[in-house]
Write a structure and sequence with these properties.
- The structure is a single chain.
- With about 130 residues, the chain is mainly α.
- The chain folds into two domains: about 55 residues; about 35 residues, no CATH class.
- Helices cover about 40% and strands about 5% of the residues.
- The protein has seven helices and two strands.
- The chain has a two-stranded antiparallel ribbon.
- The two termini are about 40 Å apart.
Length: about 130
C-alpha cells in the first residue's frame, strides 16, 4: 500500500482502511465521527456523503511525526545559516501595507480577494 497513491483520497480506500483513517483523524485532533458517518452512508452517492467525505483530510505518510501543530514538528534539515537582522522583519501583510502594495482595510470589504495597488499590478504584468 503506497501512501503517495490517489487511493487515499477515494471512498473505497476510506472504507477498506477505517483504522488507518481513524488514527489519522485522532492524531490531527479531528472527531472521528466523520469517518463513522461516511461508512454509515455507504454507496448512497448523496450530497451528505460528499460533504462528509470532504471533511476527511489527507492521510500523512507513516513516517510523519505526530504533533499538535507545527511547533511540535522536528526540524529535519536546515540549509544554510538563517540570517540575523538588526531590525524586526515584517510578515507579508505588514510588508505589503508598508510598501503600499496591499490595502487590507479596503480588502476587508471584498473578502474574495486582496486589493493590490496599481504599482504592483504593473510589476506583475511585466513579469508575464
Amino acid at each position: 500500500m503506497s501512501f503517495g497513491d490517489q487511493e487515499r483520497f477515494n471512498l473505497s480506500f476510506i472504507r477498506q482502511h477505517p483504522d488507518l483513517v481513524r488514527t489519522s483523524l485522532v492524531n490531527r485532533q479531528i472527531d472521528p465521527v466523520i469517518l463513522n458517518r461516511v461508512i454509515e452512508l455507504g454507496d448512497s452517492g448523496s450530497e451528505e456523503l460528499t460533504f462528509a467525505a470532504e471533511e476527511i483530510p489527507n492521510i500523512p505518510a507513516p513516517d510523519v511525526p505526530v504533533g499538535k501543530d507545527w511547533t511540535e514538528s522536528p526540524i529535519m534539515k536546515t540549509v544554510g545559516i538563517p540570517p540575523e537582522f538588526s531590525f524586526k522583519p515584517l510578515d507579508h501583510v505588514n510588508l505589503g501595507e508598508y510598501l503600499d502594495i496591499i490595502d487590507i482595510k479596503r480588502a476587508e470589504q471584498f473578502p474574495v480577494r486582496i486589493l493590490v495597488s496599481s504599482k504592483m499590478k504593473r510589476r506583475l504584468w511585466k513579469c508575464l
